[in-house]
Amino acid sequence: MASSMDREIILADFQACTGIENIDEAITLLEQNNWDLVAAINGVIPQENGILRSEFGGEASPDAAFTAAGHHTTTTSSISASCSSQSAFHPVLSSRSITERLPRMLDFRVEYRDRIIDVVLEDSCTVGDIKQILESELKIPTSKMQLKGWKVGDVTDSTVLRTLHLPKNSCLYVLTPDLAVPPVPCQNSALQESLDPNFMLIITHREAQRDYTLNFPGSKTIQEVKRNVYDLTSIPVRHQVWEGWPQSVRDDSMTLASAGLDMPCHHVAVSRRSSPTETREHSEECTDVHMVSDSEGDDFEDASEFGVDDGELFGMSSSCLRKSSMMPENAENEGDALLQFTAEFSSRYGECHPVFLIGSLEATLQEAFFGKARDRKLLAIYLHHDDSVLTNVFCSQMLCAESIISYLSQNFITWAWDMTKEANRARFLTMCTRHFGSVVAQTVRTQETDQYPLLLIIMGKRSSNEVLNVIQGNTTVDELMMRLMAAVDIFTAQQQEDIKDEDEREARESVKREQDEAYRLSLEADRAKREAHEREMAEQFRLEQRKKEEEEEQEITGSHVLHQKWSLNCFFLKAAGFFPAIRLSLEQALPPEPSEEGPEPVSKLRIRTPSGEFFERRFLGSTRLQVVFDFVASKGFPCEQFKLLSTFPRRDVAQLNPNTTIMDAKLYPQETLFLEAKE
């Protein structure tokens, strides 16, 4: 039974030989064959390729550890190395059942001078098929074309790509030594002349003890040379340590023509850095080592491009690599926990990662779902677990892939939580139950540790939050992207409906606001008209009242003048002894007393003298007050000397206009008046 360390090596070799990217699938196949590498490969590789066995017999000798690609590995890895050579396959039928597999799609990035051509083919195609595609693109005959950059030794046009056991993504370059470089106009003719010739580099691979002789055009940059060397040696650019470059080389973007290389050939040496920790320390001082590589292979050797070694891939040596936990166990609030999570994530996997929103989950939901429909986004919750074997691979190769980061930034709001510690796990399950319901919380609760990390894709739908997808860690970049795009498609359809509903609602509210405003303006206009009319009526009434008062004042003034004249006459008449005669003449001038049963209204007036005596008389309602005054004067009480008072309202009737009728003076149908001497 293989040990834990041997299993890691067997798993890496098995994936390198078969091209199986899914770790769970690879482990399952190896377990079915009791971790027998050769038997597992024979069960996966199609029958026409033959059964894999060592060309030295049943056991692999130490010499078999040196392959055409220059790999020097252990005895177990030598079997994998022999897999990359065609001589290791013999047309012997296998007694084991052969698994039917769909052809893999391989991506090739081919460089030729200043051009880059992307070629996508099935692994059942041949190298000649690649050259035919390049012939149609570059207009170069296949006979004059040399395709370089293969990891194995001899490759012919009839070589089937499947037999080369290539990663999903590969970088190749085309050499055309029989064709002259086309002239390119350049202001610096001396530089152009130096770019035309090819430079021969003799590169020594220290670990493999092997020399490579490569020809490069002068326009090739040092960075591109290092990438091509990665294809030959499987040493990622960031782990390459170089010796022999001229002192003038301080930037990998320099071309070979401007680097000052020795002619006709230049000797350099390359070796692999010992460990990721040493690589990170040395990368700050050495400009020849770069942190980024264009290779995006899916095998485990390419995982080192992201700063992840074999120990990180299989959860080994995690204690020495993790200096602190991703999230404190007893943080006062979620924002503080997310700050430490983001800082620790950046220290482990680099600054290039999705932007995690710092804040509580409730605030994140408000940000994602409760704005305007056009501004809403999907919510992606990343659940981290340090104890999962898939965590480092998922974070470094998938979550930190530029395409994933860009897509998440454009279409999602990303929030994160660490599920490693039980207290934090219980805290998230409580939040999950409160915001998403017990069903989602139970789904997360039942996830095994090896299924982490998880990526929850959540969409806000009216009054509820719907979990569209739960993406587990055992996935690939392409599958992850497809599932994210599928969620965005669902969200976009719902968002369009929400935008339509929101626009209709805003249109209705706008119409209602316009109607309310028009109604308010109408009310203000009506109120202004009514106030203007009331002011006009009040002014007219005031003018009429003033005119009436002036007329009454004139009448009263005239009546007073007449009364004064009459009083003066009475005084002189009384002095002359004629007052009894005046009383008699006034009594005789009175109209006859009307009957109570007459057709016209009759008012009965009862008058009390200052001595307490009463006298009364009937008058027609149309009779003027002057007749009443004459009647009182005929009794010896002239109005110039006495007041004629009514009871209610109390008033001096003698002050009224003498021409006013009894009806208008409201002395109808009867009234009691009191005589009171004037002071």
Trace the largest sheet across and list its strands. 16-15-19-17-18
Give me the secondary-structure category: alpha+beta
Helix content: 40-55%
Describe the sheet with the most strands. 5 strands, mixed
Distance between the termini: 144 Å
How many strand segments? 19
Q: Treating each run of at least 4 consecutive H or I residues as one helix, how many helices?
A: 19
Catalogue the unreliable spans.
47-100, 184-195, 276-322
Calculate the mean pLDDT score and round it: 77
The coarse overall form would be rod-shaped
Rg estimate, integer Å: 56 Å
Strand content: 15-25%
Structure overview:
The protein has helices at about 5-20, 25-30, 35-45, 75-85, 125-140, 190-195, 220-235, 275-285, 310-315, 320, 335-350, 360-370, 390-400, 400-410, 420-435, 440-445, 475-575, 580-590, 625-635, and strands at about 50, 90, 105-110, 115-120, 145-150, 170-175, 200-205, 210-215, 240-245, 265-270, 380-385, 410-420, 455-460, 465-470, 600-610, 615-620, 640-645, 650, 670-675. About 40% of the residues lie in helices and about 15% in strands. The protein is built from 19 helices and 19 strands. It is rod-shaped. It is of the alpha+beta class. Strands 16-15-19-17-18 form a 5-stranded mixed beta sheet, with no helix packed on it.
